[in-house]
Amino acid sequence: MTGRSPVILNQLGPAVGERVAAHPSRPTVLAHEAGRAPWEVPAGVEVLLTRPLIGWEAAPAAPPSGWGKDLRWIQSASTGMDFYPPWLLDGAPLVTCARGVSAVAIADYVMTAALTFEKRWDAIRLQGPEDWRRETLGSLSGKRLGLAGFGAIGRAVAERALAFGMAVGAVRRSGWTEPEAGIEPFDRLESLVAASDHLVLALPLTAATRGLVGAGLLARAKPGLHLVNVARGALVDQDALLAAIEAGRIAGATLDVTDPEPLPAGHPFYRHPAIRLTPHVSWSAPDFDRRLADRILANLDAYALGDPLRDVVDTQTGY
């Protein structure tokens, strides 16, 4: 392969770093130094491989002096960009994300949540013969799964839900210009929540979506709704969700994300019988590093040849 031989700062760990270093463009790969802020990029580095939760939450309000001087491309290991400071998306350097890398893992998590809810998996577990009783369990077949967001994650969830005989409806920001096989299009989230038995949040967190699931929307929900949030905790007004569950309007919630993360000790979500919390792990899978490295290497192919990169973040929408 001819073209650039870039200098790359790798903040994603050795598994990714080793594969990137073996790329035909023969890059120079620098490992992230422990204790160094993620925005402290040495001179001469033109590619930054980074991820959330390594200190970006403490980034200054304005870009540091000299930021991005030599950088030409930033690759994030996440799909959402809300963990990063706004100045990361100011237009230079180019920013790409890992859109779709975790879609399969997240879709599996969603279906696990829906099945656990319908089959009451915890409630029917026997602790002894005194617990033996006949139960009629629920089913996914014939139920409607609503998708708030229809990107890579939404598509992967829909594929699995359809295989279980569910009806699938979805809303998406870009609207519907042509039909999607098996998907009922909805123009408004209010209509989708009123028709769904399971509502899955797969939206990016932006100024427009923050607090989207609030008291007004929950009041329109189909009685018995099960809410699954695999996106961002701040999409949901958590006080309103708790009130809707306590009032019996919402039957339950499976939350892989909260605001903040983790919730403080003593928060009512921890012990509420209708709420299942998991520690923001829906994205995880044994092959995550391999899938992420595959995506980075494909973009590195393009970068080395001067071709367009995949999954460029829109600086206007933030995703």
UniProtKB/TrEMBL annotation:
Domain of life: Bacteria
Leader sequence residues: none
Pfam families in the cross-refs: 2-Hacid_dh_C (PF02826)
Entry keyword Protein transport: no
Keywords on record: NAD, Oxidoreductase
Ranges for domain D-isomer specific 2-hydroxyacid dehydrogenase NAD-binding: 130-282
NAD among keywords: yes
Listed InterPro entries: D-isomer_DH_NAD-bd (IPR006140), NAD(P)-bd_dom_sf (IPR036291)
Name of this protein: Glyoxylate reductase (NADP(+))
